[in-house]
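Thread title: Can someone regenerate the structure for this chain?

I was given the following input by a collaborator and told the matching structure tokens would be attached. They weren't. Posting the sequence so someone can regenerate them.
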Amino acid sequence: MAATSQQGGTITYSSNTPTVCTVNAATGSVSLNGPGAGSCTIVATSSLSGTGGALANNSTVLTIAAVTRDTVSCTPDAPRVGDSYDESYKARNSAYLTERTISAFGFNNPRIRQLMDVQATLSYTAGAGSLVNLNTSSVSNSGTAANPAVTTGAWDGWVPVPMAGGMPNGPATGDTYVYNADGSINSVPKRPANGSKVALSTNLPAVQEYIPADWQRAIAMARDTAGTTAGSAVPGSWTITLRQTGGWLGRWNYSTGSFGSYGGATYLDVPYTVTAVFQGFVTIPLADPTVGYKGGAISASNPKQDSAGATITAANGKLTYGKFCQFTYTLTKVGGAGGNTQIASDATAWDNTSSAKTDIAPSCNFGQTCFSNWPGYGNGANAAAKVGNTVAESVGDVVGTFYTYDSLPRIVKDYSTAIGRASGGNAIQPSSSAIVRPMGNWAFYSNQTGNTNTSDSPGTGDTPPTRLDQIMTSVYRLAFP
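Best answer:
Regenerated them for you:
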């Protein structure tokens, strides 16, 4: 803010709205107090008296106008030390003791529940040299408790990453993501495997992360480099890993009594191939979509690919982020509709072909009559191998939508949903011909009775599928936009 006196007086500045903004009395530098709404009014006063002097009035009220700024390109900004962002997460998934005991088929019959809403603050601080650190500085949950309830003592809600320290049954010290000055990753540690096989009724935090963590930034950069036009595919594809630890792993300690067991797991890695379409420069929708990801009416087998968002403002409402880059994406399971499970320690490299990687110890007590292993069905050289490969068979595809903005370092909004497909096609039928149990469904179906593997349609039970809905709610920056 700058003002001058035509008569040569000295200008000093003050704020009429100190709860909204403050000002340096000598320089006129204005600081806006957080992202809340409100008008900022600054008074510039001349040292010359208006009474009997040269000035009839020695002060002028200056009001800062509100602006709306659209993004110009899609690549997120580099992080800035001192900035922080509030985000909210709504999750519906199958973490924590999710298996239903229906005959020997609990592995493809998960219990899916809506978790409590989660609020988190993610903060950027100075690292070594020019590096910038990112931590989750606070996390809380609110709203209606999950029904059925999560395991006693477990965190009811999504776990934002980098994981915060001090979460129930989690580490005392949180994770730190480290970025280079240009916004590229310097060091992002993955959550470690558990020290022992995770119990069926575990209360460890259910952490899901994607590796590399900046895969969406890579898509946005590829769009900018190629100049991809609205409605066109972003050139290229990316291989990423969905990694689950803690409270996700109880399912792999599931036993069917005399039939057999998975033997437990300490981690699960699921590789996907990612492709994306740049949908254009758009405002975040304020209403849910009316069509599903396939086009046409939304249904249990055609879920929505995005969700209602909200207008994002900053600087006490003086800045509104207008249009964003919108991308739709598909995560396609690696390895085909069936696929093998690579059973190996966490330290062992992925074999580049298997549809899942974990360290279960599968067993089968009745030869072919074990889980999905009737004669002529199942995938593997023997009964135990067929049990192990049901981990890979239970992995399905995911679709979603995310938004970027060239002056914000984080993905602004991301919605994803499992779709009950496998490797882009029909799910497989690894069990008896009398009852069709589509795979690719552990994160989609809630009841396997009546499902058909050609239409991805749940017959009865609890729909819609799992989903994660994440959005930035507040922006705190030392310098805008």
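Residues 101-106, 430-451 have pLDDT under 50 and may be disordered.
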